[in-house]
Amino acid sequence: MIGLITSLLAITISAGTSLLYATIGEIYTERSGILNLGIEGMMLMGAVTSFAVSYYTNSLFLALLIAMVVTAFMALIHAFLTITMKANQVVSGLSITIFGTGLSSFLGKRLGPESNNFNLYGVNGKNFPDIQVPLVGDWPIFSAILNQDILTYIAYLIIPLAWFFMYKTKKGLNLRAVGENPRTAEAMGINVIRTRYIYTVIGGMFAGIGGAHLALAYTPGWNEHITGGRGWIVIALVIFAMWNPGKAILGTLLFGGINAIQFRLQAAGTDIPASLLNMLPYLVTVLALVLLTVYENYGKRKIGAPSALGKPYMKEDK
Amino acid sequence: MSDNHAKMKHSIGTSNRWEMYLDNREVILEMRNITKKFPGVTANDDISFSLKKGEVLALLGENGAGKSSLMNVLVGLYRADAGSIYVNGQKVSITSPSVSSSLGIGMIHQEFMLVDTMTVAENIILGIKDLNLVPDMKAISEKISEISEQYQLKVNPSSYIWQLSVGERQRVEILKLIFRGANILILDEPTAVLTPQESKELNGIINQMKKEGKSAIFITHKMDEVMAFSEDVYVLKQGKLVASKRTSDTNPKELARMMVGREVLFQFDKGEYKPGKSVLTVKDLCAVNSKGLEALKTISFEVKSGEIFGIAGVAGNGQQQLIDSVTGLQKIRCGSVYINESDCSNKNPIDYIKAGVSYIPSDRLGMGVAGTMTVLNNLAMKGYRDKPFSSHGLLIKSYFKKFAENMIDLFRISTPGPETIVKFLSGGNIQKAILAREIDSCRNLLVAAYPSRGLDVGATQAVRTRLIEQRDEGKAVLLVSEELDELLMIADRIAVMFEGEFMGIVDSSNTDREELGLMMTGMKRDQVK
Questions:
Q1: Predicted confidence (pLDDT) at residue A302 exceeds the cutoff of 70
Q2: Residue B430 near residue B369, CB atoms below 8 Å
Q3: Percentage, residues of chain A above pLDDT 70
Q4: CB-based burial of residue B256 (10 Å sphere; 0-12 exposed, 13-18 middle, 19+ buried)?
Q5: What is the pLDDT of residue A51?
Q6: CB atoms within 10 A of CB B235
Q7: Can you tell me the distance from the alpha carbon of B129 to that of B124, in angstroms, rounded to the nearest whole number?
Q8: What pLDDT does residue B277 have?
Q9: Residue extent(s) of CATH 3.40.50.300 domains in chain B
Q10: Core-most of A20, A293, B28, B443, by most CB within 10 Å?
Q11: E-state strands within B425-470
């Protein structure tokens, strides 16, 4: 029994890592007032580029870096369209997802070795190995947490850091003000445009790490459906976490857990259709949204979305 | 150059010693030949002024005269198209609010610049450049408490903004400026939303700051405030500077004339008070606010045809819930609301509209108009369901246009045309558009909430005249206002609200400011007598 729990938890955490990176990134982006629905496309691009780079160079570090540069560039396009050109954020985000999905699929069929018909699907590259922490790393339960790859360990650190940065630092305060009330932020001397650019690009980089983790650690390998809609789950997770990086961990564990159970059930060959389980994360999100509204109406604190989320900011608007 | 310029401006009226002394004070701020254009309008046309240390400069003008845009240029929210700014004799380029803040210029905007979901302390330190990456909130809170004690600005640094009253929010705004070490304060209509007591408190603070050598620019409509604490007064009209005077050399009448370009009537022609049958009957009404707390405690009153029934009181004592209850915007807990003897309790706004109730909300841009739609569509927004605006579900655009042109003409709405986006009009003209729509559709009851709040003399005059017109035509008018003068001037009967109750209902001809003031603080009428 304890063995089953340990292995389920191990998959949960591993599956949750990519979600966690992308979710933290998206929380930061949305906190600045920009909704980025391009996460799915960015994760796919992060996955395909990191896998290709790791296959040809054998450098995991370079693979990760390239993935981040590519997705940062995609986020920059989103930022330019929505912040400078004041385009509709939903339309721009969806375009980036559609674009990223198509381009990653195209690249996956062209970047591979000649021996494999130039296809990346089916080849093996270098992966992030699991690192076992000495002593406690092979205890039951503990081994699930302390026998993971390096990106997961970094994620452990990123959660408290991201929380601390958001709520305890000057920069975090500025960021929250920009997403909540950009006019006030501007009047208080904060550069709203620059802030939004910075955190949109950072959010894109995090989505790239999430994609890279799928291709280089969780799966590992490349296929067109490697994200399995994770980019959309991230959007839901941000809501579930109530835009708080600290709470993102609960969501990623829950959603990663659903993933792990799915994995198990499929392996065991049960009759529960996969689509039912695929639906669960979204059902949970709807429930979370309902609870959030009820809490806001009857409680006193406002904890929901940043007030200016999705709204373009015009400096000299009336 | 800078000194000559300043002397030129003030060569008038340096007759006594005090004036001489003031004139010798150093000029700390100068704006020269500022021009700011928006698409279609010139908000500021070649405006120059100077401000001296320890002085208050009043900026007077109607809505849309360009006062706020001039100040927004000064703090770096807008970029001027031409002109230059000098601080302490040095030419400066104010490209953003952080630049103006580092020059010691701070502004309290008409709409408060506060983040509701953050605490007082967080709002005060927001955007300060030389702050540690991890601010020591405890030390900051202590410093805030210190300042608030020094200036008698009581507020808890760890409260959230949404928990605070309007008066408290303004204290936070002032604290914010002092905390940042501002020595030039810009106050954009600071008393528009304050109670008389809170305004008094603000006056005290301004005087204290003057003594400390700080200067202020005061944007206002209220003549008595201009006279009370400004040394200089500048009058703007349609983007141009039309007069600059020493305050001691002028008087309210002259200023009002310069501001609107004509004599302002402070008197109204009002027909004889001949109340008819009851139009609005409220019986034992009680209701809760958005937090679920009791906001109205068994209120009963009648508004008769041919009368203006005024409701006085400090904002937040249940006036909004009362208005919402008699327009169908909120559910009532007990009691009943009758319009012309038909029970409308807990019916929907559309039922009230059909019963002939019109409503002028206090939140003009939020509830009164759809800001991004045209004047034409906003004017038709109430009548569009029926003939002649539409027929068989299709809109008749030619009638819309005819109607809008008619209304613009009749209510003297100053707009480039009926197709202009309504939010680009000045506050006064937006209010005129709302008045036009609501009065045109009013058949029985007109509910007006703070209709002249934030409006200039001319627009206020227009609003009040329209309300009296409705009364004289035999309609019932329910007027909620925080300005006692307004109520005493145009209302027939006045009820005073305090903590969700009526302290008493008085005939306006039979009361005075003092009696109303005492009732506003919670004394029942029989106690006052």
A1: no
A2: yes
A3: 97
A4: buried
A5: 96
A6: 26
A7: 12
A8: 94
A9: 23-104+223-261, 274-356+442-529
A10: A20
A11: 445-449
Strands B184-188 and B105-108: parallel
pLDDT at B10: 46
What residues contact A271, with CB distance under 8 A and at least 6 apart?
none
* Residue A304 CB neighbours (<10 A): 16
First to last CA, chain B: 63
The structure tokens 């930022």 sit at: A79
E strand map for chain A: 130-132, 147-149
The shortest CB-CB distance from A186 to any of B97, B114, B133 is to B97
The encoded tokens of residue B361 equal 């909300």
- More reliable by pLDDT, B334 or B199: B334
Distance between CA atoms of residues B138 and B141, nearest Å: 5
| Interface residues on A facing B, Cβ-Cβ cutoff 8 A | 168-171, 173-174, 176-177, 180-181, 183-191, 298, 300-302, 307, 315-316, 318
pLDDT-wise least confident of B16-25, B67-76, B459-468: B16-25
Nearest CB to A187; choose among B97, B116, B129: B97
**What is the total residue count of chain A?**
318
- Over residues B385-435, the pLDDT tens digits come to 888 899 988 999 999 999 999 999 998 888 888 999 998 888 888 999 999
CB spacing of A177 vs B77 below 8 angstroms: no
Tell me what ipTM this predicted complex has: 0.88
String of DSSP letters for A39-91: HHHHHHHHHHHHHHHHHHH--HHHHHHHHHHHHHHHHHHHHIIIIIS---HHH
- Decide: helix, strand or coil at residue B485: helix
From the centroid of its chain, how far is CA B198?
A: 15
CB-based contacts of B28: which residues, under 8 Å, 6+ apart? B51, B52, B53, B87, B88, B183, B184, B215
Q: Does the beta-carbon distance from B109 to A181 stay under 8 Å?
A: no
The DSSP 8-state label assigned to residue B105 in this structure reads E
Q: Which of B78, B102, B108, B126 has the highest number of chain A CBs within 10 A, making it the mutation to test binding with A?
A: B126
Which residues lie below 8 Å from residue B90, measured CB to CB, with a gap of 6+? none
Contact status, residue B508 vs residue B488, Cβ threshold 8 Å? yes
Amino acid letter at A128? F
Beta carbons of B300 and B283 less than 8 angstroms apart: yes
pLDDT at A92 over 50: yes
In this structure, are residues A191 and A30 in contact, taking their beta carbons and an 8 Å threshold?
no
Q: Could you give phi then psi for residue B177, rounded to 5 degrees?
A: -70, -45
- Count A/B contacts: CB-CB distance under 8 Å: 83
Q: Is the pLDDT of residue A31 over 70?
A: yes
Cβ(B30)–Cβ(B50) under 8 Å?
yes
Judge: B77–A187 Cβ closer than 8 Å, yes or no.
yes
Tell me the mean pLDDT in the region B262-288: 82
Residue B280, beta-bridge partner list: B303, B339
Which of A171, A173, A192 best probes binding to B when mutated, by most B CB atoms within 10 angstroms?
Answer: A173
d(CA A263, CA A109): 27
Domain B23-104+223-261: give its CATH architecture: 3-Layer(aba) Sandwich (3.40)
- Rounded to the nearest 5 percent, the helix, strand and coil shares of chain B are 35, 25, 35
d(Cα B354, Cα A209) in Å, to the nearest integer? 59
* Rounded-to-10 torsion of CA B351, B352, B358, B361: -100
How many Å apart are CA B327 and CA B337, to the nearest integer?
Answer: 9
Given an 8 Å threshold on Cβ–Cβ distance, is B113 in contact with A183?
yes
Please name each of the domains of chain A with its CATH number. Answer: 2-298 (1.10.3470)
